[in-house]
Design a protein that fits this description.
By secondary structure, the chain is an alpha/beta fold. The chain has one domain (about 10-260): Rossmann fold (3-Layer(aba) Sandwich). The chain has helices spanning about 20-30, 60-70, 90-105, 130-140, 145-155, 160-180, 200-220, 225-240, 255-260, and strands at about 10-15, 35-40, 50-55, 75-80, 115-120, 185-195, 250. The longest helix has 21 residues, at about 160-180. The protein is globular and about 55 Å long. Bound molecules: nicotinamide-adenine-dinucleotide. The site of nicotinamide-adenine-dinucleotide (NAD) has 30 residues, from helix 1 and helix 7.
């Protein structure tokens, strides 16, 4: 019987694989047999890969050019690249949501039945139910430039934090897209990690405050999540082992949200 977790024979595309989670994912994919991995990133990856397409995912034209360079079937698309609110809101929305959406929509025709789209979202996007009306309004716009105009005039109304909002949008867009993709036999899911020990954590320490980041880790397991601990659930969602999992957010946060939902979080460390 074949191993349902194996990537043998699967052609994979990963965005944001020069450092952090994406770099750990390249190592893991090599271990579990992926024969051909294409990376889209600003920076060249050092981990195992077959093809690197230098791409600035904040630019619509660069995303289109990268799509044109991806030939043949793509069994699994990992939309993993992300930037923090240390960058301008338009860049955050473009990299974290618009590029992810454009790649997912434009490559869908190349993803065969049984294939999957897996997005790296975040527990930072957990407040999406509060902003669902605005998120759907933005998703309905669709067009890249008009979406960027929308964010300029609506960011304050959705909390003012471009990073958290972008991850809220990714989570809702993923749910919406999953219904369309499953009609083709393609699944769409996301992983929502807690703070991870990657270069991006420095940016979050700057934008959200080191105290909040450390408090979140302390309230979960007390140990910061490793990039590999995010790569593993990402790989699971892209594998045959998750063949009936569609339209879901896999919360990989060491139990932080579970403790929050059941009133077991100690907020005193925040004051
Ligand atoms: N680090 C955390 O605490 C944390 C927590 C939750 C979710 N996440 C998410 O995990 C994902 C991976 O982030 P990470 O923590 O590994 O960070 P990272 O900074 O190590 O990796 C991000 C990758 O994206 C690439 N990238 C950045 N801007 C780009 C652009 N404009 N075009 C192309 N590539 C670009 C970088 O070169 C890098 O390889 C992101 O989506 C992030 O939002 C991170």
């Amino acid at each position: 019987m074949s191993n349902p977790f194996s990537y043998a024979g699967k052609r994979v595309v990963v965005t944001g694989a020069a450092t952090g989670v994406g770099a750990a994912l390249l190592d893991l994919l090599a271990e579990i047999g992926a024969p051909e991995v294409t990376v889209l990133d600003l920076k060249a990856p050092t981990g195992p890969h077959a093809k690197y397409i230098a791409t600035n995912l904040s630019e619509r034209g660069a995303v289109d050019a990268a799509v044109a360079e991806i030939d043949g079937p793509v069994d699994v698309l990992f939309n993993n690249a992300g930037v923090a609110a240390t960058q301008a809101p338009q860049i955050v929305l473009a990299v974290n949501y618009l590029a992810l959406r454009a790649l997912s929509e434009k490559l869908l025709g190349q993803i065969p039945a049984g294939g999957a789209i897996v997005n790296t979202a975040s527990i930072a996007g957990g407040r999406w139910p509060e902003h669902l009306t605005q998120i759907n309004e933005l998703i309905d716009i669709g067009d890249w430039d008009k979406s960027l105009e929308w964010i300029d005039s609506n960011l304050e109304a959705v909390g003012g934090d471009s990073y958290s909002f972008s991850k809220e949008v990714v989570r809702v867009w993923g749910m919406r897209h999953s219904h369309a993709t499953i009609a083709k036999g393609v699944r769409t899911n996301s992983v929502c990690p807690a703070p991870i020990d990657t270069p991006l954590l420095n940016d979050f320490n700057e934008t959200m405050g080191q105290k909040v980041m450390e408090w979140t880790v302390t309230q979960a397991t007390g140990k910061i999540m490793t990039p590999r601990e995010v790569a593993m659930p990402l790989a699971f969602l892209g594998s045959e082992a998750a063949s009936y999992v569609n339209g879901t957010d896999l919360i990989a946060d060491g139990g932080f949200n579970a403790a929050m939902t059941t009133g077991q979080i100690d907020f005193s460390g925040l004051s």
